[in-house]
Structures are given as structure tokens and as C-alpha cells.
Amino acid sequence: MRLSRFHLHTTKETPADAELVSHRLMLRAGMIRKLASGLYTWSPLGLRVLRKVEAVVREEMDRAGAVELQLPTIQPKELWEETGRWEKFGGQLLKIKDRKEQEYCYSPTAEEAITDFARQELSSYKQLPVNFYQIQTKFRDEIRPRFGVMRAREFLMKDAYSFHLDDASLVAEYENMKAAYTRIFTRLGLEFRAVQADSGAIGGDASQEFHVIADSGEDALVFSTGSDYAANVEAAIAADPAPRAAASEQLRKIDTPTQKTCEEVAALIDIALQRTVKSVALIAGEGQFVLALVRGDHEVNEIKLAKVEGLADYRMASEAEIAEYLGSEPGFLGPLNPRKALRVIADREVAAMADFVVGANETGFHIAGVNWGRDLAEPEVADIRNVVAGDRARDGGELKIARGIEVGHVFQLGRKYAQALKATVLDVNGKATVMAMGCYGIGVSRIVAAAIEQNHDEAGIIWPAAMAPWQAVVCMINPKQDPAVVAAAEALLAELQAAGVDAALDDRGLRPGAMFADMELIGIPHRIVVSERGLAAGTYEYRARSASEAENLDKTALLAKIA
Ligand code: ATP
Ligand code: MG
Ligand code: MG
Ligand code: MG
């Protein structure tokens, strides 16, 4: 690849609206460009990285015995009605009409479509177990798309679905997928943890998330040093009713004029928890309360809004109603500023449990979802320790809290979807049996951003080897004046490529400073400079992206560094 023929378009300016370092660097490196909210173009450079991630995912899925297929992204309403998710999925589901007024959705996940395929294709236990996967665009109308491709509306997901005659087979495949995920994230050079996840509305069955560890992550994770216990906070809370009781107790103690309603507030929190709500915002004032519930389980992911008048009349309200009430855009918090809520908490020493912050002021109570809040990282850590520490330290270990970016999720679905869609096979005795299912997702496009969160410095991205757009770039000094430099650089490029190195030639004729800055910004692992001076000395200037100094090496030593 010659960079003069490639579209490399870097910028020096730091984009003002990009909060996360990965978002800023992806924009500065020219990897992505925004088309509209949550919709991004992957430039040729960005796409090279995305494809590298995809390749590792595909290789390991194939190695694990999964088989690739491709489902349509546009799916008919009738199919989604069979499972009830046309309504239940909520606002994240993008609904579309065609010219005949037929309704469709853009797939946010594909349990329905794959189960429809399975009920047509699978008829005998002899065809089981089988694990189908695709690497396909998804659309979720996220309430707050942000951080670039980290939480986009259109994004690339690897989603896999396995089918089984019995639970033992499902459990075996679930373990197989966990092992495959471990290989994938290890090969991608990421620091990650697998944690227990709350299995949510589906109930009972196992679910684990894979998180890339990063301070900017939206999720809070709880680990113990005394055992291999690791969970996201929802799972930690769900596994133990004690924190809930403790929080309710704390809430009752709050001494404010609205004391009388405290128990009812506590009861509402309990309702929220039973519904596996991920985040709750309760905004109170002048006898009126607004409760926003955001479900966080794998299958629902919707925002449910409840309006509570004087806490007596509990009913679901539309987003528009809430927006009207709050006089603002619908969202978790409406006008409640998380920093302000925290200040309230600090002032009043009220309890916070896991992903809830409970606060109070003159006008009433505030419960702010903190699971999403980078702003809240510090106080939240303290709060979680208060709530879960005592319980988890029973294994003798120290409780650690970290923040994570969810990059993968494995799930034992059981028979829920197969039952709804009547996906059966004949068992050994010729009896029709509903199949058990597992589902396994990886956020392929999110991984690109997550990797940058973990691997960068002031100069730019430091790609893990498996993800770099090119492993090595050969930079030419003064190519226009110096044909010998051009010839030597081209020969070296050919040699690297022959040795199997994914290499490119920077023949753009830029000044060295600008050329090197670009290579650092876009995170090339190995930079080689071919110059007149080097050629005279029989050496190449080599610098690893992660090294602070360049060194002059002869060709043998150079190739040994790279190949
Ligand atoms: P999150 O909790 O971040 O909203 P999720 O639990 O809703 O994610 P899953 O339904 O488990 O997501 O989907 C599988 C994977 O798809 C996730 O683990 C994540 O890596 C990725 N993913 C989900 N939503 C997005 C998004 N809006 N943008 C980019 N990747 C996403
Ligand atoms: Mg999640
Ligand atoms: Mg998930
Ligand atoms: Mg989600």
C-alpha cells in the first residue's frame, strides 16, 4: 500500500464535542466521520482496523465450531410480534414502513430471525447442537448515543445463537463460547475481565459479560481478591438482598419534611430492582415525582417512564409527558445534574446502592442512575464499597471496584424464544422437543474504541499488534530529491511484505516531522525511516510505537524486530 494513493486525512485540532479520548483520537486520525447522531462513516483507515477485529473474531468463532451465516437487517413486524418484542423492546427498536404500509424493524439483535431460520431448517436432534453466527450491522435507537462508535446507533456486532436438545448441551456450548471469547480478547491484546451479569427478566439462567477495563467505562464491576468472584454491580446487587434492605433503611432515616413518603419511595426502589432496572432517576418537587426506569437486561433495554403524583398514583407515562413535566428532553435525569445530585448526597450522607444514587434536598428525594456516569466514578466507588463490601469480603478477599466497557455478552437463553416461535426438533424417541438456546454477542465496532481507551499516549493511538491498520510503515525522507531512497524504501517494503508483514509505504513526500506525527497518531506499531544518511551507513532508523527512542539497525536486525 502506498499512502500517496490511500486516503489518509489526519487533523491536529481536538474536536470540541468529543469527551472520550478514543472518540477524539478516532476523529483526529480520520478513522470515522459523523453522518448524523450515532451514525458514522468508517474511512478507509478506520475500516482497515475494523476488519482486523472482525478477522480475529471470525477466526476464533470458526475455530470454536460456530458456522457463519447472514440474516437480513430489516425484519417483519409479524415475526417480532410472535415473541412480544415488537412492543416490549421499547424505544430502541427502529420501526419502518414500506410503500405497502407493511411494518418492519431494523434488527437491534436477531433472536427472532435466527429462531425463524432454525424452525425451518432444524427438524431432528441429529442436527444438534449447532451454533450460527453473523457479523452484521445492528441498529438501536439509543436514548443517548455518544462517545462516537462506543455507543452508536448503527454499529457492527458479532451475534451467535446456538441450538440444543438439552440443557447439558447448552451449558457445554456456553463454556465453549466463553473460552472462544477469552481467546478473542487475548489475541486483540486487551486487558479484560469476564464478570457475572444479571440475567434479568429471563431469570435464573447464566449470563456473563466481557469488559475491557477502562476508567471511562460506563459499567461498574466488582471483584474479590479472595476468590475468582467478579460481577457487574447489577449482578452483585441482585445476588444479595442485603444492600437493597440497607438502602431502604437508610432512606427511611432521612430527616426531611417529606418523611412520610420515604417508605413509599423505598417501595418504589424495590419495584425498580425487581424489574431489573439498571438505572433509576427520581425527581421530586412540589408534591410531584417523576420516576424514570431504564431496564438493563439483555433483552429489553428500554426506557420506561413512570409518573408518580404524590407517590400515590403510580402509572406509566409517555416520554413526551415526562419531557413536558421536566420541561426538557426526556432522559434519565431530566434537569437533575449528576454532579449536583452527588453534592446533595455528600451533604446529606444518604445511602447509595450500586448503580443508584439516592439523594435528598429541600424539595424531596433524588435517585440518580450512576451506571452510565463517568462524572460519578469516584463517589460511586465509595458508595458501592459501602453497600457490597461487607458481604463480599466474606471470602476473605479485598473488594475491588473497576470500571469496564462491555465488549461481549454470553447468555443461556433457555427455551424462551424457541417456545414462542415453536422451534422444535424430534428427539431420539421421535417426540417433538422445544430447543434450548444460547446467544453470544460481541461489539466489534465498540472494540475499536475500547482498545484506544486502553492504548494511547499524548501523541495518539498505540495499537495492539492484531488491530493495527498496518504493522509497519516505511517512511521515505526527501523522496523527490533522492531516487536511491525511493528504490531502497520500495525494496524494503517488498521484502517486508514477502515476509508476511502487513506494511505500507509513506511516499506522500511530507516533511519528516509531519510524517512521523501522523504515524504516531494513527498508531503504527513499527516505523522505519529510509534516508540518504541511513543508506550511507547501511542502516534504517527504527522506532517501535511504544518505545521512546529510535534506533539505527541493519536490515537483519530490523527484520528480526518486525517479522
Ligand atoms: P450496553 O449495556 O453497552 O448498552 P447491551 O448490553 O445493550 O450493551 P448487548 O445486547 O449485550 O448490548 O449486545 C452485545 C454487544 O453489542 C455488547 O456487549 C456491546 O459490546 C455491543 N453494543 C451494544 N450496544 C451498542 C452500541 N449502541 N454501540 C456499539 N456497540 C454496542
Ligand atoms: Mg449491557
Ligand atoms: Mg449486554
Ligand atoms: Mg444497551
From TrEMBL:
Its main location: cytoplasm. Residues 38-464 form the Aminoacyl-transfer RNA synthetases class-II family profile domain. It is an enzyme of class 6 (ligase). GO terms for molecular function: aminoacyl-tRNA deacylase activity; ATP binding; proline-tRNA ligase activity. It is found in: Cytoplasm. Its EC number is 6.1.1.15. GO terms for biological process: prolyl-tRNA aminoacylation. It catalyses: tRNA(Pro) + L-proline + ATP = L-prolyl-tRNA(Pro) + AMP + diphosphate. One of its GO terms (cellular component) is cytosol. InterPro entries: aa-tRNA-synt_IIb (IPR002314), aa-tRNA-synth_II (IPR006195), aa-tRNA-synth_II/BPL/LPL (IPR045864), Anticodon-bd (IPR004154), Anticodon-bd_dom_sf (IPR036621), Pro-tRNA-ligase_IIa (IPR002316), Pro-tRNA-synth_IIa_bac-type (IPR004500), Pro-tRNA-Synthase_IIa_type1 (IPR023717). It comes from the Bacteria. Keywords: Aminoacyl-tRNA synthetase, ATP-binding, Cytoplasm, Ligase, Nucleotide-binding, Protein biosynthesis. HAMAP family: Pro_tRNA_synth_type1. Consists of three domains: the N-terminal catalytic domain, the editing domain and the C-terminal anticodon-binding domain. Homodimer. Catalyzes the attachment of proline to tRNA(Pro) in a two-step reaction: proline is first activated by ATP to form Pro-AMP and then transferred to the acceptor end of tRNA(Pro). As ProRS can inadvertently accommodate and process non-cognate amino acids such as alanine and cysteine, to avoid such errors it has two additional distinct editing activities against alanine. One activity is designated as 'pretransfer' editing and involves the tRNA(Pro)-independent hydrolysis of activated Ala-AMP. Belongs to the class-II aminoacyl-tRNA synthetase family. ProS type 1 subfamily. This is Proline--tRNA ligase. The lineage of its organism: Bacteria, Pseudomonadati, Pseudomonadota, Gammaproteobacteria, Lysobacterales.
